[in-house]
Q: What sequence folds into this?
């Protein structure tokens, strides 16, 4: 049985899912990581936040790994929260729909890839996740991980905030520079600040609760 502070999530594009488990005990997450990887073949990552906050995160990100983990914890499960189990079923239906859709359009995937489009562009055209396209290309044995597509995000002059849905000037979004690559946050400065305050409040509440629990022991 797994009981703790964690959740499944769907990306803002609606084309990706993942698992996030939060704990004030890094050693607990490290033991949990070992247990998960020893039972099912998935890629598990741990972020300890470099001591900036007192909680750490265990993350599972790809669609296939997320569904494999959820299948594992709900297999023969007798006790669970109905709303979380329903979310699991929703994710399963979404994944099955994605791969059913790809099987119907596999020739189109190959055609777009042969025309020089990258996995990101193909995923956007077909309305599926980028990892689903990569998986399809690998199955067809035509995936070339060394092939790179030039990104034109640096040419943007405006952007639509994913949170408030306003069409704003690009200078209203935080710029991210990684080496020679430029990208922008999906939320405007105002929405990003509000979201960060909300997350900090949740983390503070969790930390306070952990301290109370430790003092009570």
A:
């Amino acid at each position: 049985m797994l009981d703790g502070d964690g959740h499944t999530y769907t990306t803002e594009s609606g084309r990706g899912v993942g698992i996030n488990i939060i704990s004030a005990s890094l050693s607990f997450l490290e033991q949990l990581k070992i247990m998960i990887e020893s039972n099912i073949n998935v890629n598990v990552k741990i972020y300890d936040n470099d001591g900036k906050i007192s909680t750490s995160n265990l993350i599972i990100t790809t669609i296939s790994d997320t569904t494999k983990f959820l299948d594992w914890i709900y297999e023969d499960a007798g006790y669970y929260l109905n709303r979380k189990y329903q979310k699991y079923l929703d994710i399963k239906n979404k994944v099955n729909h994605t791969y059913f859709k790809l099987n119907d359009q596999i020739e189109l995937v190959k055609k777009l890839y042969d025309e020089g489009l990258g996995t990101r562009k193909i995923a956007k055209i077909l309305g599926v996740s980028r990892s689903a396209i990569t998986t399809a290309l690998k199955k067809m044995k035509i995936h070339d991980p060394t092939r790179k597509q030039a990104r034109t995000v640096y040419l943007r002059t405006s952007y639509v905030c994913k949170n408030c849905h306003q069409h704003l000037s690009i200078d209203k979004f935080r710029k991210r520079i990684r080496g020679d690559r430029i990208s922008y946050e999906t939320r405007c400065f105002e929405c990003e600040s509000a979201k960060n305050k909300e997350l900090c409040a949740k983390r503070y509440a969790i930390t306070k609760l952990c301290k109370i629990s430790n003092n009570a022991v």
Summary: The domain at 1-95 is CATH 3.10.28.10 (Endonuclease I-creI). DSSP finds seven helices and eight strands in the chain.
